[in-house]
């Protein structure tokens, strides 16, 4: 969704906000903007386009000041126009806001404010917020009090940061949308996520629901709007480092994060036994376990179902998070729901766990972001330890989810040590899979596929979710229509679309080689161009990607060349692999 950032301190805020916008751009990149309080009042610059394009046109660094806010947008209410870009300002030109989320009753509020003489200059829901605050300030309330009163009238979900031209104050509030505080030496950062300010501080305050942060020259205070009182929140030091949030020698985060998988998988092999055992015990005790997630995390979760069945002889139910509330009827206090989410902020996943909790079920999460809403609302969590994933398209977070689910299944089968050893070994092999030679080899394939319009992928067993995830990677970054099927299913209809030269990617393994090769033959007989991915070459393949047999860990190995292929296709087709059109890293609206 959108990315928001604020700064309050002694330094010139403009370069800090500009850098923060670049780091937050993966959350939305329709438009961007900045507001800064200068000696001559508040100055706003905003426009449609990517941060650096706008900076080249408008120069975000023109004005100096110590208090500023910024925003990168992923449009929900109102088209992608300059008027709809944030920051938005109140009618008196004093209260400025950046907002992530949705104000659900904005139409009623807009009507009310219009009746009070307010004018609106955008189609956004956001513009109602600063004007509601101005309305309360006109009635004599101070800035903080006016914000509090305004929020009572505004429904929905939001993370907002506000500044007031005359007040030298910054206010930030979160309700069902991410917002973290960075605490530096005499300075504060407020942002949608940690990488936005990681260069400046590792000391973080994770906010609770409806916390309202008030920062002025005397420091920071937090008022909780539910408790209606001031609260203390601990400062936590996080173990991410600023380098992890930078591209370094790579042209794109996508490739950097693909390569990082060696390290990430090795880190998973070091997860504390106690944590894995504790979560596995919850699965043992539960009467019915459900695993829920969206997008890439959903593919990892589907894998989990196969892994639990094969390794632990345990049936786990999988459901796409947005559909899960429709199955809440059979949840009981003895049910267990495992939610998998890189960001821990996906609205559909949060709605699923809230449905589970309302039935009294226990919730366990697997998430990459410490302090995320999902983590805070779960009874227990496993942190993925993948480091910040900046590219919109998920890679290392996915394989770390697979590895964690694998270890849980191993522990349920009493084979945790064996499982960890296999993961450790795999780390070394992944290094080879992401090597320059492999990248060059896959570039040759990308050159063959670059003009293709449709592509099909098939796999059986564990290779079925792999095919789904590979198709998603290709679609997300190259915009080629890619569809995945279970090996046995394609012939029940979709085979009608296979023509001479249609590329089909076939995932094989020692276990299901015979059957999947038969499926590949069926496709070849209709003229398909067959790309094999697996341990052994076959005459049916026109192109072969050798990936060694790794049994239950085949999925981790086989997805890596597919991530690289998707990357190469994006580059050859002139697409930006880090910022695919229409996507957002964390979708915090339903
Ligand atoms: C968005 C992203 C996907 C991601 C999905 C779930 O749609 O574009 O890449 O897989 O959300 O995200 P989560 O943070 O819950 O894993």
Task: Give the arrangement of secondary structure elements.
Blueprint: E1 3-8, H1 13-24, E2 31-38, E3 41-48, H2 51-58, E4 67-73, E5 88-89, E6 95-103, H3 106-115, H4 128-138, H5 143-153, E7 156-164, E8 170-175, E9 180-183, E10 188-191, E11 203-206, E12 211-216, E13 219-224, E14 229-231, E15 236-237, H6 253-259, H7 261-268, H8 273-285, E16 289-293, H9 295-312, E17 317-320, E18 336-341, H10 347-358, E19 362-367, H11 373-377, E20 380-383, H12 396-412, H13 416-433, H14 436-449, E21 454-459, H15 463-478, E22 481-486, E23 503-507, H16 513-524, E24 529-534, E25 543-546, H17 554-572
Bound molecules: 6-O-phosphono-alpha-D-glucopyranose (G6P).
Model description:
36% of the residues lie in helices and 23% in strands. The chain has 3 domains: 3-244, Aminohydrolase, N-terminal nucleophile (Ntn) domain (Glutamine Phosphoribosylpyrophosphate, subunit 1, domain 1, 4-Layer Sandwich), CATH 3.60.20; 248-434, Glucose-6-phosphate isomerase like protein, domain 1 (Rossmann fold, 3-Layer(aba) Sandwich), CATH 3.40.50; 437-590, 3-Layer(aba) Sandwich (Rossmann fold). The mean pLDDT is 94. A hairpin with a 5-residue loop joins strand 7 (156-164) and strand 8. Strands 3-2-4-1-10-9-11-15 form an 8-stranded antiparallel sheet, with helices on one face. It has 590 residues and is of the alpha/beta class. Helix 3 packs across helix 4, helix 9 packs parallel to helix 12 and helix 12 runs antiparallel to helix 13. The longest helix has 19 residues, at 554-572. 6-O-phosphono-alpha-D-glucopyranose is lined by residues 294-297, 341-343, 346, 349, 392-394, 583-587.
